[in-house]
């Protein structure tokens, strides 16, 4: 028998083929294009060829459409599970972003599903049905395939507590060590579908990131015998590799690729060969059935995106993202102003999340806001010390490398996953980096209200909830230090700011300097 393990991951709500930058944009990705490829790969479906489709998480959050549905049209939320049914998904996995709008909303998103959601390492104190299945076993022609579902154990470090009340995210390796031997007794083939990635290079086995537990795919493959195939995600990488003899895939993000692992079984139901692949979707025609389901709510959302909000006096467009991160930028300063206005603090930080952030045009619409501020972040006010602030700034300063007199981005922030969102720029303080100095010694000036910041000085700072929980390897920021949370999404706070300030001046901030 030939088993085809076909998967999507990190679609992030890009259902129609558009990036939403313009109403007429046509993008080379989307679930609708991926659906066509899935159907092509699944076309051969017999007693001897068995396609199994798995969605590996981060499905219901990430695009302007997902925000529009969650905040304005929750009655449309079952669309996600209906689309998964169209693709004949046979198992779903929870990604970390599945929890961004709370558990009631997640339950609504999955309310039309004809497949199980798998949550082996999620313990639910309330025993809700949504998290009740650690695995599923599928059977055809006497062959049994077990799929174990795992979610990155780092969710609790990032997510707002009330969104995951009653849930506990357990160590994925310990969970797999418990379940895989049992599944080997129950099934012929054992597959792990893990919303997490590889923390080591597949060829050299060298660490590719800080070993903090966010991604533990390499440890799973090294420490848990009996895995026949592993589907990964979360890192947005494009992978089709074999690690420790196990085929591994990861299909990128936004539906840019469909991944497939082909397993050949002998008459004794033993895996004899395996082959991982990824299939780009750029040339695939969007699936008609998917587009018919998505079209009505997508059209409403496009109208909403064109809602005018306010006007910029000056230039708030971002043309050179590295230079913006090196010298600060009017758009970054504006976001920090919104944060400080919302919380009443006079220190705030934000990131220029990726190199696609356009900034704001002169006549601002919701489209510009959603395309520039791409995460459903909420704000937290944190009580810290001057030492905490300096340590955070040293972490920021490590984003840059100085090579032959030229500033480059540290590869740690580029590979294996682009993580520009880990680098913050602050308002409300005056600070200077000296890139000629070693990591940990680069903050050469740090002033607050015109005076040097002391190590034991008490400060309050506004951060997004991800950073406030230490996300991005900022251990000086901790949930225990949060003194106040705002329940409103940043995009709403930005729109509210324009309602109060219809004309906003774009000014180049001067509080941050870099020497090199």
TrEMBL record:
Cross-referenced Pfam families: 5_nucleotid_C (PF02872), Metallophos (PF00149)
Source organism superkingdom: Bacteria
Gene Ontology CC terms, in alphabetical order: outer membrane-bounded periplasmic space
UniProt-listed Enzyme Commission number(s): 3.1.3.6, 3.1.4.16
Keyword set includes Membrane: no
Broadest EC class assigned to this enzyme: hydrolase
Keywords per UniProt: Hydrolase, Nucleotide-binding, Signal
Gene Ontology terms describing biological process: nucleotide catabolic process
GO molecular function, one term: 3'-nucleotidase activity
5'-Nucleotidase C-terminal domain location: 325-478
Domain Calcineurin-like phosphoesterase: 5-237
Family label: Belongs to the 5'-nucleotidase family.
UniProt protein name: 2',3'-cyclic-nucleotide 2'-phosphodiesterase
Organism: Lactiplantibacillus plantarum (Lactobacillus plantarum)
